[in-house]
Write a structure and sequence with these properties.
about 90 residues; mainly alpha; two-stranded antiparallel sheet; about 50% helix
Amino acid sequence: MEGINSVTGGVPNKPSSSAAKAPSNNAEVKTQATPDANVEVELSEDIRAAETEALMREAKVQEMRDAIEAGRFPLDAKKIAENFAELERLL
């Protein structure tokens, strides 16, 4: 790595020959094509339903987060402690 980002006398150092070698484990390099802007995708009803459910959950989580921050969400310290104890037993 001595040649990377190093400059000597105004001329960049050449990378070592090991840096330019391809992986020796014959791994394939996969490239991903750039999607065409004009491609249309039709989602199944199951995907649409899951998306709607995810949006509703996100709204519910945000509502709960706001209630906790405002002090309007009831927290049960005993139940929280029991859940932490259960998590510890799983570890």
